[in-house]
Design goal:
Elements lengths: L32 E6 L7 E6 L2 E4 L11 H5 L3 H15 L6 H5 L2 E3 L3 E4 L7 E4 L3 H11 L15 E3 L5 E3 L4 E2 L2 E4 L8 E4 L3 E2 L2 E7 L18 E8 L2 E2 H7 L13 E3 L4 E2 L7 E2 L17 H6 L1 E2 L2 E7 L1 H5 L5 E7 H4 L4 H9 L10 E3 L14 H4 L7 E2 L5 E2 L7 E8 L7 E11 L1
Parallel strand pairs: 6-22, 8-16, 9-26
Antiparallel strand pairs: 1-2, 1-5, 2-3, 3-4, 6-7, 10-11, 12-15, 13-14, 13-22, 14-16, 14-17, 18-19, 20-21, 20-25, 23-24, 25-26
The protein binds manganese (II) ion (MN).
């Protein structure tokens, strides 16, 4: 686990004035990593850190000598803490670096972004127990949670090639669907297109094949966390998911935020991992004192929608969901890493582990339309009178996240945004 140090000091301010505005996503205590270039340019993407409404070009500031984020993610925990300290010291008010680093700043609004790293492999888990229970009831009323759920962090291997960065349009997928009374499926556009509110956990240093990562070492192998929308075609999913799990219902597109919030930045926002007495306690390889004391992440999550009609009328997005990652997740990120590697599977820098849909215990904290509409049986009503069962063309979905706690400066995860195209 990463310690709270001078880089988290609430009194620390930056010479980048926009970073000192209360409520800003990227104060000097955050320092998330992404890949950017001037918008519309053909330059190679380079590594930046968000500060206020600016991006600091780390190479131009003389802090690193690579444009390869995955190489940077392969650093040891000590090297990472050292780099964070150098960035924080240089951006702090009255730093001697100000004059030189000012030239390495770019306004975020004048930049474009790509995936924050090269994702070689992507695994999606199913750690949201309220989501798993509600969805399980829809698909299997008598048997919502499979017996393995409380023993095994359930997951499936997803597809890395179709990950996109926030702002990329999402094309409605075609696929096979079986209408309720039909004898045979048809091929056509998904009519039950949904989102999934998730966190993405990015792997830092990997492990050699055959050498599992222990739960106590797992956080040293986690680089950080970003917002993640696992777009899902529920009609395709219902028809294809047995016996091998989701396939084309999930792999047409998934949207990530441009910024990875490092595990170091999240140090003040940790919470205990607990397991109810009546539930099975984790097997020893999924249990450890560090994980029990602070394995959970105290991150607030929000989903908003703006329909095409709202956009044309100049109406702001409206909230669909507000919840907390830590109320939702049955397993911690460290447990996912320990489980994923216990059989000898090797993780590599930049690999992405999806948390699964992080729905809270109540309906206003449900992280998908599948849950908000009870499997499409009801609709939700928007303030302008429009209703939604599932997503329609022109709908924009916005995921937001942030951490807030007494004695710490609020940090934000930014946004993961996508608009559905027909
Ligand atoms: Mn998912």
């Amino acid at each position: 686990m990463y310690a709270i140090d001078a880089t988290h000091d609430p009194k620390r301010r930056s010479w980048v004035e926009s970073a000192n505005v209360p409520g800003a996503d990227y104060p000097i205590q955050n320092l998330p990593f992404g890949r950017f270039r001037p918008a519309g340019s053909a330059q190679a993407y380079r590594i930046g850190v968000a500060i206020g409404d600016q991006v600091l070009d780390l190479r131009a500031a003389g802090l690193i000598d690579t444009d390869d984020m995955n190489a940077l993610m392969n650093a040891s925990a000590a090297e990472r803490v050292h780099l964070r300290t150098k960035i924080s010291d240089g951006l702090a008010a009255h730093s001697a670096s100000q004059a030189a680093w000012q030239r390495a700043l770019h306004p975020q609004s004048a930049c474009e972004y790509t995936l924050p790293c090269r994702v070689g492999d992507y695994t999606d888990f199913y750690t949201g127990i309220h989501h798993a229970t509600t969805v399980g009831k829809l698909f299997r009323p008598d048997n919502p949670l499979m017996p393995s759920y409380k023993w095994v962090p359930i997951g499936y291997h997803g597809r890395a090639s179709s990950l996109v960065v926030s702002g990329t349009a999402v094309k409605r997928p075609n696929g096979q669907t079986l209408a309720p009374d039909a004898k045979a499926p048809v091929l056509g556009p998904s009519m039950r297109l949904d989102y999934e509110l998730e966190l993405g956990y990015y792997i830092g240093r990997g492990n050699a094949q055959g050498h599992p990562i222990s739960i106590d070492d797992a956080e040293a192998h986690l680089f950080g966390v970003g917002l993640f929308n696992d777009w899902s075609a529920r009609d395709l999913q219902a028809w294809e998911y047995q016996p091998l799990g989701p396939f084309l219902s999930k792999n047409f597109s998934s949207t990530v935020a441009p910024w990875i919030i490092t595990m170091e930045a999240l140090a003040p926002f940790r919470a205990a991992f607990t397991r109810a007495k009546d539930d099975p306690q984790p097997l020893p390889y999924l249990d450890g004192s560090k994980n029990r004391e602070q394995g959970q992440l105290d991150i607030q999550l929000e989903v908003l929608i703006q329909t095409e009609r709202m956009r044309e009328a100049g109406e702001a997005p409206v909230r669909l969901t507000l919840g907390s990652a830590h109320d939702a997740a049955y397993w911690t990120a460290a447990q996912l890493v320990a489980h994923h590697t216990v059989n000898g599977c090797n993780l590599q820098p930049g690999d992405l582990l999806g948390s699964g849909t992080l729905s809270g215990p109540t309906k206003d904290s449900a992280g998908s339309l599948l849950e908000l509409t009870s499997g499409g049986k009801t609709t939700i009503r928007l303030p302008n009178g429009e209703t939604r069962g599932f997503l329609e063309n022109g709908d924009t979905l916005i995921l937001r996240g942030w951490c807030e706690r007494d004695g710490a400066v609020r940090i934000g995860l930014g946004e993961a945004v996508g608009t559905i195209q027909g």
